[in-house]
Amino acid sequence: INIILTGIAVSDMLTMLSYLVYAIHFRIVYGINDEHGKYTYGWSMFLAFHICLTLTTYTISIWLGVCMSVVRYMYISTLGNRPPGTDDRRSCILVVVVFLLSIIAYTPQYAFMSVHPVSPNSTEVYRIKSIDIRSKDRSPLETAFVWIFIVVGKWIPSILIIVFGILLVCTLHKSKKRTEKLKGAQTKARLKQHTRTTVMLLVIILMYIISELPQTVVLVEGVASDDFLNYILLGDTIDMVCLINNSVNIILYCAMSKQFRDMLWASLCCIFHISDPKKYRSVQTTITNASP
Predict the structure, then answer these.
(1) Which residues constitute the domain of residue 173?
(2) Pairing mode, if any, of strands 114-117 and 126-129?
(3) Percentage of the chain surpassing pLDDT 90?
(4) In this predicted model, what pLDDT tens digit does every residue of 20-32 receive, in sequence order?
(5) Is the Cβ–Cβ distance between 141 and 91 less than 8 Å?
(6) For the domain that residue 63 is a member of, what is the CATH number?
(7) Total structural domains in the chain?
(8) Confidence check: pLDDT of 289 > 50
(9) Beta-ladder partners of 127
(10) For this UniProt entry, which segments traverse the membrane (predicted)?
């Protein structure tokens, strides 16, 4: 689970960093209608990169959320009786596969993306040409990509994450009943730990459902009816909900996983050259125990 959480954290970090640069330049430094200096060739290229990156990272995050719910469900179903290291290896493979397949799936979007000047005589303002999901004049290839984006990037992962979220709740309830019949402090402590971890995972799954399901419904409705009024009206709100989800995830990871907290703290200590008090206490205890 921690490896998958790390993959989601990397994806969310890339999304937020790209959005930070986008918001500063396109929303804060320049007004909404100010084009001079806002859409230069360099910044238009960045905007094209930002669109491709965020589409890819959103898809990576939602599919890693699906993988996380599947892995947790399998772990609870088997009562954690697996050889050590097996889950770690599988989780690493899952993360790599999700990253690679998401990049491959959006290759048509990368290929269609281009930057060109507004007019042949103007070199100050540039525009991006890409697959417009709201356009009615799409080619068959562009229409196929739009449906691949909706089905593979939104529809299927949303359904899977709901299904395995329900299965997690049912399995956790059964596991709790089964464990309550057993006696022993170790059994109760293990149940408490599993319950806490699973509940936090369910919170993360719920955040994904809240942020992705409305967008999926609006997109399917718009493409099926060629009426994107609801998508246009709710687009900024949906994007804001997705960004809030990305921002909250890191807090949930730290609350859920002690290993994640320890690794984050160790990384911060390494970056900012801070002495780690935990490491100091560990070394001090070792020296004390070793002394005659």
Answers:
(1) 2-256
(2) antiparallel
(3) 6
(4) 898 888 888 886 6
(5) no
(6) 1.20.1070.10
(7) 1
(8) no
(9) 116
(10) 47-71, 92-112, 144-172, 193-211, 231-255
